[in-house]
Design goal:
Helix content: 40-55%
Strand order of the largest sheet: 1-4-5-6-7-8-9
Largest sheet: 7 strands, parallel
CATH class: Alpha Beta
Number of helices: 16
Strand content: 5-15%
Mean pLDDT: 96
């Protein structure tokens, strides 16, 4: 496993070709997954270790990617904290009783991941057994801001008005909430590492809604604590979208690898982050919906900007979209591996 392209790139070591994996590489664009979803809900799959294992392995068997990522959901830890949720067709996740006041924060429960999320840890052990060291397995957790935004908004938001209202209006309560979420996330990641994952990604998908000053005041201390808890046991990745203005702050918060979305050229983003960190990205996911030649042209531009520097992991700027043709994903993996081959 130490010779894995992906893990070597995380450590900024030379590789024979640029490693590739994709966020949401297991999921709705794959016919194998859609077939399962005719029988099971998304939460059913997440809660059944055998099904989660099957879905995690589907892209490994089809795509020749350089890493697997655990099939699960960012919101799973919210339920044992006292925030049950479900997925509403066409709308995404919906929290049954969103946080509305400081009292709701104080009512949240602590839990032991080994008990309340035992099914996730069992899935990790099964996946590792089935992978047999073919590729590394990435575990993950949601970062405090992103989890808090779901818990407060009740689902996805376009402006995060309720989240920011609580953050600005009740800063002490906000920090109590994020402290609880950071403690949970650190424990959950530690349990995943103990179960066998080879790397972990902290998803702060919506933190691009904040400017640098707010990020430093309201988010950074809590996210830092998660990365400090992992304590370099495995490589760590830090992901967000719309984060061009706070890339330096993301680096300071933590992560061996900083994710870059498609809104900024990857070479400029890497300069802003600093070349002492690896980077991940940064193709626009919608390019996989169009003509392959355009997808390849943009891929060439990314690889040219990286210029063979050690520490680049090819990925999309966000997850694979449900309408993406599987054949385009296959072609992209093969193209990156071929175009980036080193002598």
């Amino acid at each position: 496993m130490l010779t894995s392209r992906f893990l070597k790139a995380c450590r900024q070591e030379p590789v024979d070709a640029t490693p590739v994996w994709f966020m949401r590489q297991a999921g709705r664009y794959m016919p194998e997954y859609r077939s399962l979803r005719k029988q099971y809900s998304l939460l059913d799959i997440c809660r059944a270790p055998e099904l989660a294992t099957e879905v995690t392995l589907q892209p490994i068997n089809r795509l020749e990617v350089d890493a697997a990522i655990l099939f699960s959901d960012l919101l799973l830890p919210l339920e044992p904290m006292g925030l049950p949720f479900d997925f509403i067709k066409g709308e995404g996740p919906q929290i049954e009783r969103p946080i509305e006041s400081p009292a709701d924060i104080d009512a949240l429960r602590d839990f032991e991941p080994e008990v309340s999320l035992a099914h996730v840890l069992q899935a990790i052990r099964l996946i590792k057994q089935e992978l047999a060291d073919r590729v590394p397995l990435i575990g993950f957790v949601g970062a405090p801001f992103t989890l808090a935004s779901y818990a407060i908004e009740g689902g996805h938001s376009n402006n995060f008005a309720r989240t920011k209202s609580l953050m600005y209006g009740h800063p002490e309560a906000w920090h109590r909430l994020c402290d609880r979420l950071a403690t949970m996330a650190a424990g959950y990641l530690t349990a995943q590492i103990d179960a066998g994952v080879d790397a972990v990604q902290v998803f702060d998908s919506w933190v691009g809604a904040l400017g640098a000053a707010d990020y430093r005041e309201f988010v950074m201390p809590h996210t830092q604590r998660i990365f400090q808890a992992v304590d370099r046991r495995v490589p760590t990745l830090h992901f967000g979208t719309g984060t061009a203005a706070i890339l330096g702050e993301l680096k300071e918060a933590g992560g061996d690898v900083i994710g870059v979305d498609w809104r900024m050229p990857i070479d400029l983003a890497w300069e802003r982050i600093g070349h002492d960190r690896a980077v991940q990205g940064n193709l626009d996911p919608t390019l996989l919906l169009g003509p392959p030649n355009r997808m390849f042209s943009r891929t060439d531009d990314i690889l040219a900007r990286v210029a063979g520097r050690a520490g680049h992991i090819f990925n999309l700027g966000h997850g694979i979209l449900p309408s993406t043709p599987v054949e385009h994903v296959q072609m992209l993996v093969q193209y990156v591996h071929t175009a980036s081959q080193r002598p």
